[in-house]
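Task: encode each sequence below as structure tokens.

Item 1
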Amino acid sequence: MIILGIDPGIAITGVGVIEKIGSKHKLLHYGAIVTAPDLSFPDRLFDLSKELRSTIETYSPDAVAVEELFFNTNVKTALTVGQARGVIILTVKQMGINAVGYTPLQVKMAVCGYGRAEKKQVQYMVQKLLNLSVIPKPDDAADALAIAICHSHSYQPFGR
């Protein structure tokens, strides 16, 4: 099963693609979709959708996992990230895939076994679980890989 993990954002959206083979994970791709700050907000959302479509066309994921928003004291940031997340979910659905959401707590539990793990712990576990020589950068990409790993641990197909 090929899984695309997404850490939504308007400036930077982390993406990570893994393949689950039995109980093992194989890294296929990670990176970030970066939108230009000098563009209008609608143009940034459009670029996010366009780049996400390209990633989906390249890797043909069987599943897409998107991080849920957590409570943010900065309402403006929460609203813009929420709108980016909405565009992500719509784009994924338009390409015939259902998106599944996971909270940061669920991701940390799945990757580290502890829901209050620090960001560095999550990054370290992503590196180890994917047998990488370095921690993936930027942080958003490492987070996206953690979300994909979370889905690989959480998803149970029918009949199992």
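Item 2
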Amino acid sequence: MSLYALPLKDPAAEPLAPAEFLRSAQGLSPEAARDFLAANPGYLARGIRPGPAKALDEAAGRAGFPALLVAEEDLPAVPRPLPAARVSPREGGFEAALPGTSVFVPYDSIRVLCAWAWDAAAVPDTAEALKPELAARLAALAGLKPPPPPSPAKDTFFRADIVADAPEASRIVLRPETLDFSPLAPARSYSSLANFRLLLDALSAPAFAAVKGPFLPAFLASRPLAGLKAASEEAADAGLSRLILLGRSGK
């Protein structure tokens, strides 16, 4: 028996907007409802049986959250990422420098152009990573109990996905920390995040037919992003699958 997902039909629906409906309909705590929506951006349910899925779908429609009833196996797989080192906007499209090659992507071939952010443990540099081990060794030499390991510092990570029909159903991934922003000169600044916003703004306007999700317009407008963050990069992948589905179905 197939299990079903309920992706929201509106690509621009804010992830946490259905939290109160989901709390009431599913008997969840407010925290559990928000946690589910952050881990599954744009979905009201994942992996539920046909009967409960149909009932929840009907209730969601009445509550103003129309959804699609989709078998889990019919959700699109997220294409293999092609990390871009540099993106250069051109007339009618953009050129992306990918590992070992360069491709031109026409704006009218873009089906999804979206962005994400999530909080995760920051990767310390080598010196910082050695400090807890050094402190433990010094404590052992002094006959003292080793200090408790520090809580890992968290950082916010950003990613943009461009899913296009040409070249050959590609998924180009942009990360601000690894992009060469030289094509933006002279507008380029010292802030990689500001440059990331500038680049996505340049790509977003001509890709007017692409499905964009709720995070990208908020990011471009410098609006608060806390309620739009995904729980993790895996959650962003789940949200991307939904946007690909909507791009294919024209919903």
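Check on item 2: The longest strand covers residues 110-121. DSSP finds seven helices and ten strands in the chain.
End of task.
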